[in-house]
Specification:
The chain is α/β, with parallel strands linked by helices. Strands 3-2-1-4-5-6-7 form a seven-stranded parallel β-sheet, sandwiched between helices. Helix 2 packs across helix 10. The longest helix is centred in the middle third of the chain and has 29 residues. It is elongated, with a radius of gyration of 24 Å. The chain starts with a helix and ends in a 9-residue tail after the last helix.
Amino acid sequence: MSTLASNTRKNSNAAKTILITGSTAGIGRTTAIYLAQHGHHVIASGRKTAELAKLREEVAGLSLTKKGLARRAADDRAHGRESVSNLRPRIDTVELDVTNAQSIAAAVEAVAVITGGAALDVLVNNAGFGILGPTIEIDDAEMRRQYDTNVFGLMNVVRAFVPQMRDAGAGRVVNVSSLGGRITLPYFGVYNSTKYAIESLSDALRWELQPFGIQVSLIEPGVIRTNFEATAVSGLQKFQQTAYAVAISHYEKLSKRADQFAGEPITIAKAIERAVDSRRASARYVAPRMNYAAIVFKAITPTRVWDWAMRKIGMLNERTVNTKTIRSTTVSPVSSKVSSLDAALANASNGRGPVAHA
């Protein structure tokens, strides 16, 4: 790596090349626009080609902010270019499905063409989605789909782009987790578990990549006004035939009322900007910052009291949960295997055939 490149990467005010996953909506889209207007070169990625095209079109009609102009001018001077030859935000788009190995490989090649073979300065892992419902009622396929995107997809992208950062001796990884990676809520068990996994993986990556000059940060959003919550809550309808039907109907009403207190995606974009621009990035950025209160409150609250509060939030009590209903919407593969084994053992004991070991 050249001295110029090294100095540019170490300068917190320098324009950086930033790849953002999940950029077609919500936090990812807002962040892509915000960072581009602030003078960074953004490579927005996502699965929906049409939405990426709309994003490019929108950014093309915008101008750099005052901060963006200053950053662009400094970047132009550092590279011997005429100062601020282009007043427009710089954004490129790449199609990327984080759950598809071929798509990731193609994105690596596309990004290399855009950067001229240079490593990314920043990787923002934002792609993700949530499945809500009584934890025991969410089937294996849905749970795996959640982990494939939120956990395995994130690590697949890290493995694809971080090696170039290691070779360059610098870089940043910003993983969008959630306040739900530190506090579990009723019906969010599967989603929260993926965020707990991201928290743990990010901690390990932060320690392991530091010798290579790579900083790793977590962004922990609270409730944010995007389509995420509405989409997740709408999926609760399929659990209306379970023991939790009444509790869920009450929870849906509570969730809609709570939405009025939700923050805006721009709050998260600004937190990501702090992680991108800080000379020494923090390990975690809680956004909005007032959500630190929830983390502190949980830490000092006795478990019995916290459990009571969570049951109240989830409307989980003897009146709202039909404890006489034992039928589940899911079919447990483990139960099926156990039943088959029991039958085989019974047949063997009756002299009807051999026992197969499961």
